Amino acid sequence: MTNKFTFAFHCLVAFLAAAYPATILLIGGGYKPVPVLLLALAIPVLFTLKTSLFTRDVKLLILAFSSYFFVVLASLLVYGGNISEADIPSRTVLTLPILFLLLLYPPRIHWLLAGVGVGAFVAGAVAIYHVEILHMERAYTGHLVKGYMPIQSGNTAMSLGLLSLFATFYYWGKQKYIISLLFFIAALSGITGSVLSGSRGGWVLAPIVLFFILYHFRDLLSKRLFAVMSVSLFLLGTTLLPEVETRINQAYADVELYTQQDRSNTSVGARFEMWKSAWYSLEEKPFFGQGFPGRDLAEKRFVEEGKVDKVVELYGRAHNQYLEEAATKGLIGLTALIMLFAIPFAIFMRYSREYQRHDSQWVFAQCGIIHVLLVASYCLSQNFLNHNSGTMFYSVFTVIFLAGCMQKKQNVPA
């Protein structure tokens, strides 16, 4: 490749990496186009890879992503089932060529953060359009606007919002106050999108991630900045309070109905029953689970035996990624899922300690930590990775951030 062609190709790859968060909620199914383009660009690159590229961190990520997929294949070989069960987990392996592409042509931190900010702003704008213009009860409701799912999209909006909040402080520290303000607006927009989606699972670890961000930028928290952000958050909270209060009160009511009246036909009550069913499946076959067909049969048997309510038959999954993996693939499957989160998280944590705030690697690492923490929390109340949107969002963003961490040391321009 000539130098000019290499530079242009690098710009194209970096642009697509930044375009991914910017377009992910722009339209229904917006999570698909950019990864497909990146994969198409990555395939020829696979034939030029050198062994030096396979560092310890790269090998660990390959282990984490591959294990998750191959455990599913092993389950299908042992227990049988529809081969389509391996389709969505295969996205983790298909993301690996994109990692190699990005290792050779790393993402650019300012471009990527700009994409995150645009994506967060778009998330809020789309949610407001859905609720205020289309009069949808919840934003991103798929039966009215094809390609969206309220829980998946709402969680994605929260991630984009909190990553934008991180960028707010980052640029404030670089004394780029206008850019910082734009990112703060984007952060509020992304969080608004999550609230309007009614996806309560996206709010579980949000306070902890917020504390994580504030801790790293605690030296920037002047009284003036604190006052401005507090007023902005208060105004946003006042606007969104009815929606949040309604969803929280509904959750409390569901718990009360379940515990006091044994009512399982509510959102929370149904989840409790699904979790019980998954736990019973794990108890019966703890090592390698029930398999996909066996899980369905076991659930029907639990209903007949009166162990769980028949409401579980209305749902295909346990609405908890950890329990679902344990039920279908046992402790082996649960371990593979934990590795999927723990290995990238450990790598990001190490890079965050090795580099300083003026290094681009530090910024990528902090974003990676936020990303992994949030997706891991989404899996507590939703089978986030059992959907194309969830698996692709997690795996593609992870390799983007990881490739950014692994690039040669360079200072971020002021």
Automatic annotation (TrEMBL):
- Sections of the chain in a coiled coil: none
Tell where it localizes.
Answer: Membrane
Task: Offer a single GO CC term for the protein.
Answer: membrane
According to the record, the segments passing through the membrane are 31-49, 61-82, 88-105, 112-131, 151-172, 177-196, 202-218, 225-242, 331-351, 363-385, 391-407
Q: Which UniProt keywords apply?
A: Membrane, Transmembrane, Transmembrane helix
Q: InterPro entries under this entry?
A: O-antigen_ligase-rel_domated, WaaL-like
Where does the O-antigen ligase-related domain lie? 186-337
Q: What's its membrane topology?
A: Multi-pass membrane protein
Do you know which PANTHER family this protein is assigned to? Answer: O-ANTIGEN LIGASE, TEICHURONIC ACID BIOSYNTHESIS PROTEIN TUAE
The protein depicted here goes by the name O-antigen ligase-related domain-containing protein
Provenance organism: Photobacterium halotolerans
Print the organism lineage: Bacteria, Pseudomonadati, Pseudomonadota, Gammaproteobacteria, Vibrionales
